[in-house]
Design goal:
The protein is an alpha+beta fold. The protein is 22% helix and 39% strand. The protein has 10 helices and 17 strands. The protein has helices at residues 4-17, 73-88, 102-105, 115-118, 122-138, 198-211, 229-241, 247-251, 309-315, 404-407, and strands at residues 22-38, 41-59, 62-68, 142-158, 163-178, 183-190, 221-227, 270-272, 294-298, 301-302, 336-339, 355-369, 374-387, 390-394, 398-403, 411-421, 427-443. The strands form 2 sheets. Strands 3-2-1-4-5-6 form a 6-stranded antiparallel β-sheet. A 5-stranded mixed beta barrel has the order 7-12-13-15-17. Helix 5 packs parallel to helix 6. The longest helix is centred in the first third of the chain and has 17 residues, at 122-138. It starts with a helix and ends with a strand.
Amino acid sequence: MLGKETIKRITERVLGMSDADQTEVAFLGGTTALTRFANNYIHQNILETNTQVTIRVALGKKLGVATTNDLSDDALEATLARARTIANFQPENPDFKTLPTPDDAGTPRNDLFVETTASTTPDLRADGAGAVCRLAGEKGLTAAGAFSTNVQEIAAGNSLGVFSYGHSTAANLLTVVMGENSSGYASSTSRDVSDIDAEAVAREAVGKALRSKDPIDIEPGEYTVVLEEYAMGGLLEYLALSGGFSGLALQEGRSFLKPGELITGESINVYDDGSDQRALAMPVDMEGVAKRRVELIRNGVGGEAVYDSYTANREGKQSTGHALPAPNPWGPFPLHIFMDAGSTPRDELTKGIERGIWVTRFHYMGVVHPLKAIITGMTRDGTFLIENGEVTRPVKNLRFNQAVLEAWQHATLGDTIKLQKGFLFGSAAAPAARIERFNFASATSF
């Protein structure tokens, strides 16, 4: 890591060289350590350290952006000049008002860094990977996956007086364990590597692979399902990926959010909070604005979208701390998304289901219709039949096409949430759920 003081010095140096009307210097980087395994042995160990510096200048209402990871004075000066040249050739953006001010930025929290994670050794990651590989081998199965630990730092300063810095940590162990015609998945995610129980991850994935052996055919159609936390977290992430929670999507009329209107079941509460210590949190965004909690859906009612300074200024609002690195055609994005748990014990979600399907997780997901929140995907790594309230036989995987908010109108939520590693440096946390009507459009042969 560069550290706060080093980044501040670089920021001041760049700002001192700039003659633009407004200038912003943003940093995103850190250290990523990764131990990969496949066929029950470790085959790769990497350590990467990098920092990307993005310089944005405003010449009136003309904006230019340039990026480098060379922190020498000459490279920074050249990058600044490149950003200025780009701005000169841009048309004026009538919606641009200003970069964030110190009043906009607020004060980020600074307690999201865990030294134990930052100082994790390759030996510790190898021990975790080894626990998975050994148990898989003992059961005649094959394990693949990765154990990663990360330190992220993010900072931004501008010529209006903003300077914000934050750093945080993340750890993630995930595996897919495979048999001749079966597979099982498990993962564990935390800011603190000490929370990762490799033996528990191994037992979960191996257990799924053993139970899913020799799956039977099942007809596609509408079923009552129990979606594990992995599956619900995937749906939550893809709702975010659809852009539906973005202030830009709302302004452009392509969001499902509908603030103030009932859009899903009253048991559904979704929010984004990059300062929540349970998340793989980052305390500031790429404009230096402190992240705050945003209620996206409350009791089924559409809430507030997330904003960066550009989209907020278009409506006379304040940024919620959700800016991505410039230039950013996607708009603000929720990266630390939560769904509140319900009150039903996870083991009781199958009660009363005469014939349904238990889903471990989804893959090959995609957004079919953003306005209707329709998502497609396939089940994977542990799909089972539910008969008379009990999980019984494994079934072959199914493809779904489902309007997610419509499905959640008929959801009973489990009483605990599970954190999962998400897009970029974000995370998603959701409970398991029972959904009364879930549409599987087709079946597979495996």
